[in-house]
């Protein structure tokens, strides 16, 4: 499809017109993204219906009802792909004192993957009672209640951030909520050094206002076409 008004019979036009080349590149990228999206849906569907559902588990299926009911303030649940989580945790340095909190944990896939690493504690919070119920059921079935804690809590009112020093976020909130959560994490970093794993870091600039921030890794999630920034504060 030509957007510059030139006739399509101009043989060399598509090869020389920058505007048409840009349109062609955009269409190509859209097709690639659509293919990746359907490929991801297929993989996740197979994982859920063949491996999780028969056992009564559900780490995989999206749940965006909170996104609608909160009018976009809270983003609901969409899992981070397991291979990318392995890459993330594989880039951390462990001393045996790391305590992980997943802020907006949903059904708990991050907690499941984190439990395989030497975190002293693994916990997640989510405001949605239904998602926390699913997460708790998952870990009960897997007999992992002693290893993983799922807490129903509003991230802006949660008062136990100081018990943790590693925080995971998968773009869980819109800016008004995120600003309050960032302020809480910065307050914790004033007492000790913390590590933040920010998947799809839409509001990374909220953290960059803190002078002690040190970005250590940028990783790319090929499945979801998102970046992940790992950084330290304090």
Report on the structure:
- The protein has 8 helices and 7 strands.
- By secondary structure, it is of the alpha/beta class.
- 39% of the residues lie in helices and 18% in strands.
- It folds into 2 domains: 8-55; 65-233, Vaccinia Virus protein VP39 (Rossmann fold).
Rounded to the nearest angstrom, the radius of gyration is 21 Å
Distance between the termini: 52 Å
CATH superfamily of the largest domain: Vaccinia Virus protein VP39
Order of helices and strands: HHHHEHEHEEHEHEE
- Residue runs with pLDDT of under 50 for 5 or more positions: none
CATH architecture designation of the largest domain:
3-Layer(aba) Sandwich
Could you please say which CATH topology of the largest domain applies here?
Rossmann fold
Residue fraction in strands: 15-25%
What are the salient characteristics of this protein?
alpha/beta, 8 helices, about 20% strand, globular, methyltransferase
Write the layout of secondary structure elements.
Layout (H helix, E strand, L loop, with lengths): L12 H4 L1 H35 L12 H5 L12 H9 L8 E5 L5 H6 L6 E6 L2 H13 L6 E5 L13 E5 L4 H15 L4 E6 L4 H5 L5 E8 L4 E8 L1
Parallel strand pairs: 1-2, 1-4, 2-3, 4-5
Antiparallel strand pairs: 5-7, 6-7
InterPro entries: FAM173A/B, Methyltranfer_dom, SAM-dependent_MTases_sf
GO molecular function, one term: protein-lysine N-methyltransferase activity
Protein name: Methyltransferase domain-containing protein
